[in-house]
């Protein structure tokens, strides 16, 4: 405020001039490489420049707004006995090297935000964001104004802050779906230990904005301000991938995965530099923002369907009453950890069993048609156990003069449980419910998300480039053969082999390498079936509404 820092540090002045003259895509690249990380004053100016571009389309709260709220709430002495706002889960403020006066300022700003945004009922990251931004603000009013800009930003493709438990939990579920794709194995570890996946993933955003050391957190903040929420998915997945390597050698000694992950993140410097962490984060080829938004909305619809609007309304899945002739309770927990989050909210219900309904595909179809998704479980006479998660209704099966009609979506996967536990699935994210742009004859609409989409900071060349990306991902995935059948036979997977092939009398079958799921034979070649079951979810979910283009 009192010093012309540009004269003391001319290199920082040159860098700031480059920031001011750069467009959005250049600034994204700068943020990812730490261009404005030093000195402190350069980062402060960069933040204000970025937030100014956000505030121009969002908040109406100016600096005078804060002073008015402070006078109203705290009086002339500006002292406060107010409790922490309701949107803070535990009332804790990350210190981030703040002194007592700094922590008091954070609390005052949070109370003012609570007054200015009474509809914000659940947002545990706000305290961390206020603490971080206060480091780079001239005063409390500027920090308040910056936070208001982030809260008010309404573009769904690049949002910053959620306001309710419902939206926060839907984001947790979306992260869980992504973790299921990109950090395979961690869910199996947690589920098989009978620990709560809901609680583990509910901390995902706090790994970044509470547990990460300050020097790591501000580098994440650099890219978060530029790119929005999607960056947080990337960083959390990168942390989870590093944690998976760390915990795999000592999993038998972990009594509490949730606390163990928190400790790992707090001490992440032992395992990775911030540059290596961000490099890992941006090497993860996530779906597009539009496709992530669709998955988020599908998860939110599932929560509404389940009537989960706050933390107290959520109940962990109880498998103690689960009974099966094929799998154990622990094995079913693992399967339920593998399936998409919006279905894992609901309890499994048995639709078909060879022990109850007999051995015929006719009986099989009569019991399972009209239900989706379903889980097929199979035990061979050699005590091998395998199966498949099938996203589509078997009522879609059909044959014509060209042969079997394959259907299904990229959410389908196959797995083995005994002798070893492993899931096999194409590295794509495909969500039931959105129109398939390549095959309009499909009764079930599907959303395809190719994992091969670029994650580099590429400057778009117009709408045609996005259209090429979408067309490529939809058309490529539509050629995969997920499931098919008739009264004589049933196929799961059909690209260069069948993951499962069952005969009409359900007494025998076969399994071979299958490119559909990139899976090896699930059991010994040809096998005899000891028992077969099909499970659905307790409550069917309607297909969520198609997002407007």
From TrEMBL:
Superkingdom of the organism of origin: Eukaryota
Coiled-coil regions, chain positions: none
Start and end residues of each TLDc domain: 325-538
Residue ranges occupied by any Rab-GAP TBC domain in the UniProt entry: 37-228
Subcellular location: Cytoplasmic vesicle membrane; Endomembrane system; Synapse
Keyword Membrane: yes
Cellular component GO terms, alphabetical: cytoplasmic vesicle membrane; endomembrane system; synapse
Statement: the UniProt record of this protein carries the keyword ATP-binding: no
Membrane topology: Peripheral membrane protein
Keywords associated with the record: Cytoplasmic vesicle, Membrane, Synapse
Membrane spanning residue stretches: none
Pfam families: RabGAP-TBC, TLD
UniProt xrefs under SMART domains: TBC (SM00164), TLDc (SM00584)
Family matches, as Gene3D superfamilies: putative rabgap domain of human tbc1 domain family member 14 like domains, Ypt/Rab-GAP domain of gyp1p, domain 3
Signal peptide per UniProt: none
Record note on quaternary structure: Interacts with ARF6.
Function: May act as a GTPase-activating protein for Rab family protein(s). Involved in neuronal projections development, probably through a negative modulation of ARF6 function. Involved in the regulation of synaptic vesicle trafficking.
Name this protein carries in UniProt: TBC1 domain family member 24
Organism: Sinocyclocheilus grahami
């Amino acid at each position: 405020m009192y010093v012309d820092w540009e004269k003391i540090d001319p290199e920082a002045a040159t860098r700031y001039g480059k920031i001011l003259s750069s467009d959005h895509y250049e600034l994204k690249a700068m943020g990812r490489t730490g261009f404005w990380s030093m000195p402190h004053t350069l980062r402060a100016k960069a933040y204000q420049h970025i937030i100014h571009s956000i505030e121009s389309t969002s908040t109406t709260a100016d600096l005078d707004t804060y002073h008015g709220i402070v006078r109203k709430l705290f009086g002339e002495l500006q002292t406060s006995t107010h409790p922490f706002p309701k949107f803070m889960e535990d009332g804790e403020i990350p210190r981030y090297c703040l002194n007592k006066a700094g922590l008091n300022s954070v609390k005052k700003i949070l109370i003012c935000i609570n007054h200015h945004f009474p509809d914000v009922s659940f947002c545990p990251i706000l305290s961390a964001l206020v603490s971080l931004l206060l480091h780079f603000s001239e005063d409390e009013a500027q920090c308040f104004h910056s936070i208001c800009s982030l809260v008010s930003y309404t573009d769904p493709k690049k949002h910053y802050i959620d306001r309710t438990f419902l939206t926060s939990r839907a984001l947790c579920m979306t992260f869980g779906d992504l973790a299921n794709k990109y950090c395979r194995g961690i869910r199996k570890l947690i589920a098989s230990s009978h620990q709560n996946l809901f609680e583990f993933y509910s901390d995902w955003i706090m790994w970044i904005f509470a547990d990460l050391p300050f020097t790591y957190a501000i580098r994440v903040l650099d890219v978060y301000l530029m790119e929005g929420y999607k960056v947080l998915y990337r960083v959390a997945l990168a942390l989870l991938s590093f944690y998976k390597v760390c915990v795999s050698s000592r999993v038998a000694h972990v009594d509490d995965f949730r606390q163990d992950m928190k400790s790992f993140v707090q001490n992440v410097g032992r395992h990775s530099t911030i540059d290596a962490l961000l490099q890992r984060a941006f090497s993860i080829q996530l779906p597009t923002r539009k496709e992530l938004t669709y998955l988020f909305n599908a998860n939110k619809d599932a929560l509404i369907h389940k009537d989960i609007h706050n933390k107290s309304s959520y109940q962990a899945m109880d498998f103690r009453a689960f009974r099966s002739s094929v799998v154990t309770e622990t094995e079913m927990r693992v399967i339920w950890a593998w399936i998409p989050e919006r279905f894992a909210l609901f309890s499994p219900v048995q639709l078909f069993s060879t022990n109850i309904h007999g051995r015929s595909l006719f009986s099989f179809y009569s019991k399972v048609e009209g239900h989706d998704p379903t889980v097929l479980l199979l035990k061979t006479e050699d005590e091998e156990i395998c199966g498949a998660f099938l996203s589509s209704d078997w009522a879609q099966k059909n044959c014509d003069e060209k042969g079997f009609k394959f259907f299904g979506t990229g959410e389908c996967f196959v797995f083995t449980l005994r002798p070893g536990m492993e899931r096999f699935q194409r590295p794509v994210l495909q969500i039931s419910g959105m129109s398939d742009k390549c095959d309009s004859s499909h009764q079930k609409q599907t959303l395809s998300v190719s994992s091969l989409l670029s994650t580099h900071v590429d400057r778009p060349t117009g709408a045609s480039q996005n259209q090429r990306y979408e067309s490529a991902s939809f058309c490529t995935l539509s050629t995969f053969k997920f499931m098919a059948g008739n009264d004589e036979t049933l196929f799961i997977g059909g690209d260069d082999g069948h993951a499962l092939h069952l005969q009409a009398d359900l007494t025998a079958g076969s399994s071979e390498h299958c490119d559909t799921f990139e899976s090896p034979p699930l059991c010994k070649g040809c096998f005899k079936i000891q028992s077969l079951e099909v499970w659905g979810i307790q409550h069917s979910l309607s297909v969520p509404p198609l997002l407007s283009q």
